[in-house]
Amino acid sequence: MSDELELFTNPMSRGQIARWMIEETGLPYRERLIAYGEEMRGDAYRAINPMMKVPAIRHRNRVVTECAAICAYLAEAVPEAKLAPPPEERADYYRWLFFAAGPVEQAVTARSMGVVPDERQQAMAGFGSYERMVDVLETHLDGRDYVAGEVFTAADVYAGAQVIWGIGFGTLPKRPAFERYAERLTARDAYRRAKARDDALIAEMQEAG
Question: Per-residue pLDDT tens for 106-141?
Fold first, then answer.
């Protein structure tokens, strides 16, 4: 069984979340850059992720896709990094990790596509409404350091990425609770290392045309 960690990514993607999570674990890894278009749709990468999307990781001969799953997997695969609470204290950890992966992602995507569910449809949609999702997330973050309590966890990588991206690109409003949370996370060394690498790759891609 190979213990090598491989990251399949593109710097202009959610692969930035997976890289940040890997940096938080401290594991050495090899990056495999996957270009949009033919390479991402090709047979070689489809054997890794049939959804033809990045990121994906391969670790101990197992492939994991979906950013929230990658975060949860790595937190448990590297217990010494202490990125998951003890099992008996994981209620908030799981709740907000998957709140970000579910209602937050769904609400932001729907809004970006111009989909606004009416009152009847809100009962069917997992996120209810965009406004409700934003209010719930803000209320939870207001007055606390991290989503699962006083200690940073893998849930903050995923939920935090949504907030950092959201207030940076306008998919979330710049409310004080969001801005304070984003400032706290972007000051982390692992975040800065990951961001610097992806920014450098983006610059290289732009220079290459």
Answer: 999 999 999 999 999 999 999 999 999 999 999 999
Alpha carbon distances (Å) from 47 to 29, 51, 88, 162: 20, 10, 36, 28
Q: How far apart (Å, rounded) are the C-alpha atoms in residues 6 and 61?
A: 10
* Domain 87-189 bears CATH identifier 1.10.3720.10: no
SS3 82: coil
Tell me the H-state helices in the chain: 15-25, 38-41, 43-46, 67-77, 91-99, 105-112, 119-122, 130-141, 154-169, 176-186, 189-208
- Residue 66: what are its φ and ψ, rounded to 5°? 70, 120
Distance CA 198, CA 62 (A): 24
How would CATH label the architecture of 5-82?
3-Layer(aba) Sandwich (3.40)
State how far Cα 108 lies from the chain centre: 14
